[in-house]
């Protein structure tokens, strides 16, 4: 034990001597010696001899210098990485800074920025905290504030990798192509393809019996549940035929407002059944439905409904359809025509057999293996279940636990429900299913794609959100550049007007002109224009909200009353909707949604209007009434009597001569209390009141038809024989909007 301690002590003494010798040699010969760089890793400390007399001199110097050089380089790198601090009164600026960002960089409040902008050509009314300033204005604001600016280094943004999910491709690919194109997939093995039920969409004009037909096929009372007998949103159902076949039906609305829904239903369908009433013939939505089917390349089956009525004329319907390139088989075409009565159930099996026969000719098959693909038909929010979507599965088999992506949201499937609300374990291609488990409500028409994991789903959603933001930024930049160009033109015009002034006089004029605007600038937008109608739109499903917004997009009477859609969404009326309506002085319109008693009481307390409807055209009528109430009343003139000037003379009153007209009333009566106008050669040259009205020498209030009178005006105006005197009454009449929503 003692020998080991002595050995360690001896080693330490030798190491200390070696360090002293190394220090002496390095200080004595480092300046004049030539050395070669040596890596320290080649001479680890453990392998060096402990006796200093055995170490070569050049090795000692080289090791010392390399160690010093290594430490110096490390310190220099740290210094380079350190950000050079800004000096006092220096501001780091960059391009496209907003007012708020510049204020934060300068450590000033936003009002300071506005005050400096008084000396510029910028219109303060158009400047908000998030408004982007030009580089020249940024530099000028910093300099006017007595500070210096320093341009920030631009960070080169790396191109983001595309992490979007795509459909499985069905093109044929070679083995080597798979190695270089990872998303290229082989065509499905014919052995894997299995028959699937056809997806059939029922289209036609409103009230032509589409829902009654579907009701008769599936033996449920859908019509009784719908408001006004009009389908308000899309529905997907499976009908089991006696022969064992299945048919998936999509029932789309026929009302004019739901054009987008009909187009969406056609895009996911295999066969279209066009329902036309035998007594009405081809109507507006009938033509539109034919166009949807043509655009999607989907075959048609013609169902002529209401053939049980005495005024029914199926042949007229077939001839009218010839003008729209729908040629029935009896006229040499390929469109099957079936005469039916949906109400009485006549020939419904013939229609179903025609559908099955056409589906067999199309040889409809799908791959039930692999990742799921589908299309969202409808989306809604349930108070207990959260966001729900009705979808048609087009490829793969959907099961619980699958991770799906649609639009900018994703879901891990918790439950699946069929059209009757019963939970199911799986959904195969061609099957409509209701999906529960979405993080947010996707939009109707979005494509459903299954991904491998939740992490992958989040990557896809992040990428799609990023792409949308980039597109929005690009559009915003175009708008900003257009605004800047417009402001530049206005500035140049303003400078031309002030060209004759000195620069001090020009600055004084600009300051005085903008000073009042600056101090009267509201901090928040608390008051809305009286001639603006702010709307909060709530609907039961995404398609209903979409239909209402499409109608509002056709509003073209901004000069009469501005229409501002503050918020739209799905679900019942909430406290948040009341708060928004109160902030914007708006009105809440709900379609097929509810408002509980507490919400109604809160709305009454705050004076907020809640208008709930179950039929879309009644909602639009109510909206038009609300628009009318925002319009200012107009004055309407109603003629009470007419008289002609037969003679003129004057009467002396004091020192003044007053012109008097001798008139005869030929229509109505003249009432002195009402207003009058003088018409000469069809031009109105005077409007006002009478100063006197006499019959013979008596002052009177009223002169009736056929009587003569003398009258003078409240203005000293000469009369001419043949002039017309009109007695009229002004009434305030409520204006009506000229907006025509199209139905």
Automatic annotation (TrEMBL):
Annotated PROSITE patterns: G_TR_2, IF2
Principal localisation: mitochondrion
Annotated keywords: GTP-binding, Initiation factor, Mitochondrion, Nucleotide-binding, Protein biosynthesis, Transit peptide
A Pfam family recorded for this sequence: EF-G_D2
Location in the cell: Mitochondrion
SUPFAM superfamilies reported for this sequence: Initiation factor IF2/eIF5b, domain 3, P-loop containing nucleoside triphosphate hydrolases, Translation proteins
GO MF terms, alphabetically ordered: GTP binding; GTPase activity; translation initiation factor activity
GO cellular component: mitochondrion
Residues in Tr-type G domain copies: 195-365
Family note: Belongs to the TRAFAC class translation factor GTPase superfamily. Classic translation factor GTPase family. IF-2 subfamily.
Annotated function: One of the essential components for the initiation of protein synthesis. Protects formylmethionyl-tRNA from spontaneous hydrolysis and promotes its binding to the 30S ribosomal subunits. Also involved in the hydrolysis of GTP during the formation of the 70S ribosomal complex.
PANTHER family on file: TRANSLATION INITIATION FACTOR IF-2, MITOCHONDRIAL, TRANSLATION INITIATION FACTOR IF-2-RELATED
HAMAP family associated with the record: IF_2_B (MF_00100_B)
Protein name, as recorded: Translation initiation factor IF-2, mitochondrial
Provenance organism: Calcarius ornatus
